[in-house]
């Protein structure tokens, strides 16, 4: 704080703090408080708002627990978000290992640039691109057919397939960078020491590299999971008739039923239940929150 | 159990840089062998080639008579102790030690028993369940040694493992390492830039410079009969006088320098006309109040350093040539004062004429 003051002077420091405070308060804290309060009130005609029926209750939350369909959608959202997280890890870990310990240093800037370029395009456009790529008569099927790998085209966007592909593509970098950082901080001598003691490569990964990168994997997994479970764009664009994502239900409550009260309750349920789920998984894998913060 | 290591004209090139240049040495089974040299002389490269992390560009490495070409580190009967030890911080001490056994599929009870046995060997019996971070520098050292011994290597490779320790502990660990080596009879190959370590611990020492092996000999010979100017100047202190051989006088030669003409022994490979220097150890350069009958040069004392067990006297002669003389602090010698006018006298048999470059260490001075 005093460091900031010394470096930028009183005026600039005040502006920084006010801007940050404004951003936090007006764009994050207040809207959430508003939604939180809304979630406890009944959905009423405008004339009855503030009237005798407008009392706080948990009714909006009970709506979820009384609806097996919604609970089912939530469950599948958890399952497929977990699947997305696992696939992201399976892609990101070898890549992170390659980038941090194998790739020659002079290639790194180029490789990172190649990884970053897709991020320059907006998520909407990228999802639309996948919609085209995965189409029945799209380039992916055309290529696979042309190469003789497939005999007839695959309907990629069916079930949760399109959603999973889209989410993995959108969020894999959120797994890659924490894991890359974690593996990079591992002393290469430890990998060599394990090999010198006779360890085959897979055991070195299992006993030395993976345990060391656990905090990075955990923070990557939490990010990918939360972002996937909370994603609305990808499930909407790449979803099929049979793939329902929990965020779509929230959207329905808010924009189709105009019931912001139940919608907010569902949004907070998503947040709370995801947090519980993540905490349980972290407990199972013996990761502490303080490990992730490192 | 222990195996010899043979380096058969081994060369290692990184691009156009030749890190190790045609090194040939035959290390005996059970020997404590040190590679001694300044940083960048190629000694660590040799160690990495023997352990299998890099493959030599030319030449053959044999361990126990077997050509190691293409063998990965996990396929060689060697164990490397890293400069920073590279213990696994997430495993308790005993799992660190037993890691090599775990890899070999030894069951847990046996692993644990073996780890405890090795902890007793390195004099750390209660540390099995401690975390690595709970150990002191010296204790970590012992765990690293135990971890390497656990796989019962034929050859132990040590990459300056004592350099991070403080002086007292280093001296203690020297004796400890030597004792462990004698007990286990494993071949030790030790890399160091510390001449004291190399001389005190080794059966034989190989002195390296610029990727070349300059001399391989027992420690006494390295110090007393250096093969060339580099070895003489890198190992221990020296008075170095440039000049030329002007005649022979029995077993000795006469050597003319700017500071006078002296008699000295002729070192190996010294021929008339070659670029040579005279090397004289400080302990053989005696200070005297009167000029001697033989080799003698008048000097003025510039500095006196009292080192405890000996006194180091720096002096300079009329031509500006600097000298160092050391005298034992046993009461037999008078401690001179700065500015005293004295004579350096020495026996020609204790001075040696050598060819070759001198080490950067002495050039700096």
Task: Give a quick rundown of the structure.
Chain A is mainly α and 294 residues long.
Please describe what this structure looks like.
The complex is a heterodimer of chains A (294) and B (365). Chain A has 294 residues and is an all-alpha fold. Chain A is built from 13 helices and no strands. In chain A, helix 3 (68-102) runs parallel beside helix 7 (161-184). Chain A is globular and about 75 Å long. Chain A starts with a helix and ends with a helix. Helix content of chain B is 25%, strand content 36%. Chain B contains nine helices and 20 strands. Chain B has helices at residues 43-51, 93-103, 108-121, 137-150, 167-184, 195-201, 219-224, 229-234, 360-364, and strands at residues 5-14, 17-27, 32-36, 58-63, 66-67, 78-81, 155-159, 187-192, 204-209, 212-217, 239-249, 252-257, 260-266, 276-280, 286-288, 295-306, 310-317, 322-328, 341-346, 351-355. Chain B has a six-stranded mixed sheet with strand order 6-7-8-3-9-10, sandwiched between helices. A five-stranded mixed beta barrel of chain B has the order 11-12-13-20-14. Chain B has a five-stranded antiparallel sheet with strand order 15-19-16-17-18, with no helix packed on it. Chain B is elongated. Chain B starts with a strand and ends with a helix. Chain A binds chain B through residues 187, 189-190, 192-200, 203, 207-208, 211-212, and chain B through 51-53, 72-74, 78-80, 82, 84, 86-88, 90-91, 99-100, 102-104, 147-148, 151.
């Amino acid at each position: 704080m005093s460091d900031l003051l010394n470096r930028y002077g009183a005026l600039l420091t005040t502006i920084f703090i006010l801007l940050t405070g404004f951003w936090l308060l007006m764009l994050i804290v207040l809207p959430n408080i508003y939604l939180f309060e809304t979630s406890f009130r009944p959905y009423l005609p405008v004339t009855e708002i503030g009237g005798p029926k407008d009392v706080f209750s948990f009714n909006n939350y009970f709506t979820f627990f009384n609806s097996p369909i919604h609970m089912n959608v939530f469950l599948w959202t958890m399952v497929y978000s977990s699947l997305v997280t696992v696939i992201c890890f399976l892609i990101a870990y070898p890549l992170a290992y390659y980038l941090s310990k194998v790739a020659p240093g002079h290639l790194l800037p180029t490789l990172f640039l190649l990884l970053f370029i897709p991020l320059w395009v907006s998520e909407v456009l990228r999802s639309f691109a996948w919609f085209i790529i995965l189409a029945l008569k799209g380039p992916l099927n055309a290529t696979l057919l042309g190469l003789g790998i497939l005999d007839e085209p695959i309907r990629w966007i069916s079930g949760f397939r399109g959603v999973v592909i889209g989410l993995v593509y959108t969020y894999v970098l959120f797994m890659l960078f924490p894991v890359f950082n974690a593996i990079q901080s591992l002393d290469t001598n430890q990998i060599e020491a394990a090999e010198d003691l006779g360890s085959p490569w897979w055991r070195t990964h299992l006993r030395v590299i993976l345990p060391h990168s656990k905090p990075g994997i955990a923070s990557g997994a939490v990010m990918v999971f939360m972002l996937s479970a909370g994603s609305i764009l990808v499930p909407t664009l790449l979803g099929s008739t049979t793939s329902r994502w929990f965020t779509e239900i929230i959207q329905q409550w808010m924009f189709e039923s105009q019931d912001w009260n139940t919608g907010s309750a569902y949004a907070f349920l998503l947040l709370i239940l995801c947090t519980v789920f993540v905490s349980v998984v972290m407990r199972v894998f013996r990761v502490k929150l303080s490990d992730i913060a490192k | 159990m222990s195996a010899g290591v043979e380096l058969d004209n081994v060369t290692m090139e990184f691009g156009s840089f030749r890190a190790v240049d045609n090194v040939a040495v035959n290390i005996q089974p059970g020997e404590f062998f040190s590679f001694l040299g300044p940083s960048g002389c190629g000694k660590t490269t040799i160690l990495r080639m023997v352990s299998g992390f890099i493959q030599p560009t030319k030449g053959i490495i044999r361990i126990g008579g077997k050509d190691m070409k293409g063998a990965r580190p996990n396929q060689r009967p060697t164990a490397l102790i890293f400069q920073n030890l590279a213990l696994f911080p997430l495993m308790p001490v005993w799992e660190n030690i037993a890691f090599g056994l775990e890899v070999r599929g030894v069951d847990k009870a046996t692993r644990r028993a073996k780890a405890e046995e090795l902890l007793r060997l390195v004099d750390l019996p209660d540390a099995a369940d401690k975390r690595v971070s709970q150990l002191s520098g010296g204790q970590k050292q012992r765990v690293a040694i135990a971890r390497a011994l656990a796989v019962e290597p034929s050859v132990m490779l040590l990459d300056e493992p004592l350099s991070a320790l403080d002086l007292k502990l280093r001296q203690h660990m020297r004796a400890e390492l030597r004792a462990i080596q004698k007990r286990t009879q494993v071949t030790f190959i030790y890399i160091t830039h510390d001449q004291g370590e190399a001389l005190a611990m080794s059966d034989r020492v190989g002195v390296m410079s610029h990727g070349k092996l300059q001399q391989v000999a027992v420690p006494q010979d390295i110090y007393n009969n250096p093969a060339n100017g580099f070895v003489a100047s890198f190992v221990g202190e020296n008075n170095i006088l440039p000049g030329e051989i002007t005649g022979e006088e029995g077993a000795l030669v006469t050597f003319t320098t700017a500071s006078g003409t002296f008699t000295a022994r002729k070192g190996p490979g010294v021929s008339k006309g070659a670029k040579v220097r005279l090397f004289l150890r400080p302990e053989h350069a005696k200070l005297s109040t009167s000029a001697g009958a033989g080799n003698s040069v008048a000097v003025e004392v510039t500095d006196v350093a009292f080192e405890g067990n000996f006194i180091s006297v720096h002096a300079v002669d009329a031509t500006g040539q600097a000298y160092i003389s050391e005298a034992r602090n046993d009461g037999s010698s008078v401690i001179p004062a700065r500015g005293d006018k004295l004579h350096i006298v020495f026996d020609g048999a204790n001075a040696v004429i050598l060819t070759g470059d001198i080490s950067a260490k002495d050039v700096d001075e």
